[in-house]
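Re-run requested by the PI after the first attempt was lost when the workstation crashed. Everything re-entered from the original request form. Ligand of interest: uridine-5'-diphosphate-glucuronic acid.
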Amino acid sequence: MKLCMIGTGYVGLVSGVCFSDLGNDVICVDKDLNKIENLKNGIIPIYEPGLEELLIKNYKNNRLRFSTNLKDSISKSDIIFICVGTPTKKNGNNADLSQVYNVAKEISKSIKRFKIIITKSTVPVTTGDEIEKIISKKVSKKLFSVVSNPEFLREGDAIRDFTYPDRVVIGTHNKKSNKILKNLYSPLISKGAKYVNTSRRAAELIKYASNAFLATKITFINELANLCEKINVNIEDISIGMGLDNRIGSRFLRAGPAYGGSCFPKDTKAITATANKFKTNLTVIKSVIKSNENRSSLMLKKVFEILKNKIKNKNICFLGVTFKANTDDMRDSSSLTMIPALIKKGAKINYFDPTGEKLDFKKFNNVTFSNNIKDAIKKSDLIIIHTEWNDFKNINFKKDVKNKKFSIFDMRNIYSADKMKDNKIKYFSIGN
Ligand code: UGA
């Protein structure tokens, strides 16, 4: 099949590369010339394990191309994926759909034969209807079909999630499109992915409902962790005990700092905005948003307790600052709230992240970056494990921290409390 991915952000690039690896001819289009030139040279703008190798392999095989020419790319393709950003609007919780609608207008100028137009970007319910309206102003409805096909990729695990998805959701009642798309996804269906064909609106909602539910699961376990800390119970035991019930499932029950990233915070807000538009009050999701927003303050309170409220001039080391491991993404990371609050109280922050120094912290005088773990931790009064990188699992703290009175606050529960006790290290974790 000939596919065109519009937008080479996270979703467009990963999906484009993976579709080409399944044997399709893929053109990835972006208006950013510099980005396109870099991609042609195998330079990718994001950190995603395995993506660079797969991109280079398929680019060399000529199955994958990069272009800034939208018109030409659309006219050469059978299926067009809209993969542009849908950020939260500056005022309020609604998703900003201006990029999606601009692309729809561009597409409407270039359709001469039947095309399937897919929203892969996360878009609120009824966006497909709007896209159809925009395109039908210029093109006969017989010549196109607008389908919702949400993605469920996690940053850091995106290639595996693309290759072995639990399900492929196709939102269309157009029989021709359904047949073509089932065929496109057949290599994944034959490996076990369930194929779910629904209405377009249902597919749009499945995406938001899934993210909101996962965010709810995390928030639920985070709040239980707060209770565990008061009653001398280990949250890890609760996660295991609950997760073994197949109706609940063990994944996304890891307590930690506030959830972040480019999806959960944005999508939970957007689904409540959609519901408000249709006069429905999603109280559970609203309270999830609130609880998660409070979580960074709770984490800070714990830091203050560990340091006995003496924050001024304390050396605090953050190991990992991204919103989770295996990504360089800082969007809505809880470190962006915690680090400025600690500096305000007079702390000196030193951090290490396997994906390098972050622009977000360059503006602060009291934040420094170390390019290795040993340097990062050596002068610390407190070491905060903010992200769960494997790189942090075997650190010899006793040997490498020069200040003998240091403490560790493990926000991801990656160490054994018993081992820390044996080593006489002051160790604090979540929900314990
Ligand atoms: C999320 C969804 O998991 C994907 O299915 C979806 O496709 C994607 O959003 C999207 O809409 O594009 P992602 O944001 O990459 O993926 O990352 P997750 O692995 O879901 O983690 C999100 C946040 O939850 C992170 O801050 C992570 O640390 C936190 N988390 C996750 C926990 O605190 N505990 C857990 O058990 C799991």
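Saved to the shared folder this time. The first strand starts at residue 2 and ends at 6.
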